[in-house]
């Protein structure tokens, strides 16, 4: 074999400390990064580490380089990928959120609907911001914002309040009995 990779700056980490730290990490990918450094410090060649951990050899040298330059913080840092830019600007998002929380389509003069749905929101986004989004994309955006799809509940006109109260009392008793078992 040729010349192996070296950890040129251990930043105060020993093989033993790395082994302990590796076991505390909840994400397997992060623990694997620490294992790479530990094995290199123990004298393994990069090709051996790559085979042991099922990681590409170039990935091993990347991890060692990060660790040598910036220590554990640099090794475990994972920046988020830029991804596709959002359709709406932050101001447009705020305006749409305000609309969803504080009004209904009827109050906004958009038909006679009493609740928002992706079909109506697609129309609103197109009209207000001249942006075309798919209904699935709007649904995903709403989920990211913490909104959930709910249906309105109905109350029965001729419901017997006394029977409902008796049922709720009986249900509470059943729940308590089940908890004791």
Largest sheet: none
Radius of gyration: 29 Å
Overall structural class, as computed from helix and strand content, comes to mainly alpha
Number of strands: 0
Low-confidence stretches: none
Task: Sum this structure up briefly.
By secondary structure, the protein is an all-alpha fold. The chain has helices at 15-24, 28-41, 46-53, 57-76, 90-102, 118-129, 135-144, 161-180.
Describe the structure.
The protein has 181 residues and is mostly helical. Among the domains are: 15-76; 90-144. 59% of the residues lie in helices and 0% in strands. It has helices at residues 15-24, 28-41, 46-53, 57-76, 90-102, 118-129, 135-144, 161-180. The protein is flat. The mean pLDDT is 89.
List the helices and strands and how they pair.
Blueprint: H1 15-24, H2 28-41, H3 46-53, H4 57-76, H5 90-102, H6 118-129, H7 135-144, H8 161-180
Helix pairs in contact: 1-2, 2-3, 2-4, 3-4, 6-7
């Amino acid at each position: 074999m040729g010349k192996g990779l070296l950890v040129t700056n251990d930043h105060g980490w020993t093989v033993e400390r790395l082994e302990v730290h590796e076991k505390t990490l909840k994400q397997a990918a992060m623990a694997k990064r620490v294992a790479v450094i530990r094995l290199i410090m123990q004298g393994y060649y990069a090709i051996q580490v790559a085979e042991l951990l099922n990681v590409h050899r170039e990935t091993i040298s990347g991890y060692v380089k990060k660790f040598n330059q910036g220590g554990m913080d640099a090794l475990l840092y994972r920046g988020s990928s830029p991804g596709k830019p959002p359709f709406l600007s932050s101001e447009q998002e705020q305006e749409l959120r305000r609309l969803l929380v504080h009004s209904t389509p009827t109050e906004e003069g958009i038909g006679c609907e009493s609740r928002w749905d992706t079909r109506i929101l697609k129309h609103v986004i197109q009209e207000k911001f001249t942006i075309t989004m798919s209904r699935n994309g709007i649904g995903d955006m709403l989920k990211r914002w913490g909104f959930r799809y709910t249906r309105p509940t109905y109350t029965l006109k001729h419901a017997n309040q006394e029977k409902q109260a008796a049922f709720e009392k009986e249900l509470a008793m059943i729940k308590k009995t089940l908890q004791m078992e």
